[in-house]
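User: Structure please.
Assistant: Input sequence and predicted structure:
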Amino acid sequence: MPQRPSRPCRHRGCKAIHRNANGYCDQHQEQAQQAKRGSAGQFSAWYTTTKWRILRKRQLTAEPLCAYCAKAGRVTAATVCDHITPHRGDPEMFWAGPFQSLCQTCHSSDKQREESRR
């Protein structure tokens, strides 16, 4: 099996050459994984609370169809209660919304692409 091509580390200022899949040299690999886990870890537990499940169910009952699909003229059942404005870990924004109903496909592709531009 061929080896990955050597490339520079993605860590700012690091000039180390590596073959790791995540783009970081051995020295910065663990640091990058911790940063990734830490950013989601602060609020990811909120999605497992009873309060969130009730809020999600209320949203999907009020708006059972995907908002993005509806704009495109498609009828698709929504399965995700999405924050229209990214909460970025702010508890007040997380619980207050505003929310929209999306299908998993739109939430995982169109919405994520939209948020990465902000």
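The mean pLDDT is 86.
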